[in-house]
């Protein structure tokens, strides 16, 4: 591990000052410390923000939910409002990592976690994300777990977060605080597709801090849930996953929110699937036809062609689980 300085911020202003001077924020540290041990990350100055007052879950005036950036994964998953209003979030969190990690890792850190691409974590391998311009060892290497959507010749890595898939489906907003004040970034714009600059992963500006993730109020009743498909049943990342939320009234789907994980370079929203569902009545035929649209635009690699069919089946299964069949 490379030498680094450590400061514990006693307040938001102190944290922002340190961030503006190039300090790197750390809270649970469950990803960053791993990457520092492997020398993939070499921050010179760590700013511990775990003492900041960002640990609240609250219902917004409009009936949405605001989750503070430092609320842990376990606290978020267990919160009665999250469980009641958005079970898809609780389920995504409880299917992530281990109990120990969920007790340490925060919501802000979770959406900022970096890819599990093995070449990214091997400092001897070519990797445009870690070392811009060096190439992408995964492109023609072992790429079974890599992305089939949103890829470029520069990078084919997936984003590893489960709860980010739920946030993408629900069209959450990431709230930031920085030297220029507060701003909210729609989740769809927060995590960046690789393009030819895969080292740029998010929309955060120098010195900005995530303060909360806000989930908008959606029409009630809202049924939702998360399905994760992986090689083993615990402590494993998704090969494919699906976050589904449906508002139904009078036996008709009025609103649909659907996103997939494990297949995209960012959590992958599925607007074509959503459009196919709205205005229709639940049926097996509807779920199958809608899920067929989930893999539109997929570009599989040599070792991950199976993901195209698996994605469609994952979405179909979760539509049926959430929407039922009449
Ligand atoms: Fe690096 Fe992305 Fe290629 Fe993996 S897929 S080696 S993270 S550039």
Question: How would you portray this structure in words?
Answer:
Pfam families: CO_deh_flav_C, FAD_binding_5. One of its GO terms (molecular function) is oxidoreductase activity. The protein has helices spanning 12-20, 32-37, 73-78, 80-85, 87-94, 99-104, 107-112, 163-170, 187-190, 271-277, 284-291, 306-323; strands at 5-8, 24-26, 45-48, 57-59, 65-68, 173-178, 181-186, 209-215, 222-229, 240-249, 252-261, 268-269. The protein is built from 12 helices and 12 strands. A hairpin with a 2-residue loop joins strand 6 (173-178) and strand 7. Helix 5 packs antiparallel against helix 8 (163-170), helix 10 packs antiparallel against helix 11 and helix 11 packs antiparallel against helix 12 (306-323). Strands 4-5-8-6-7 form a 5-stranded antiparallel sheet. It is globular. The mean pLDDT is 97. The chain is α+β, with helices and mostly antiparallel strands. The structure holds iron/sulfur cluster (SF4).
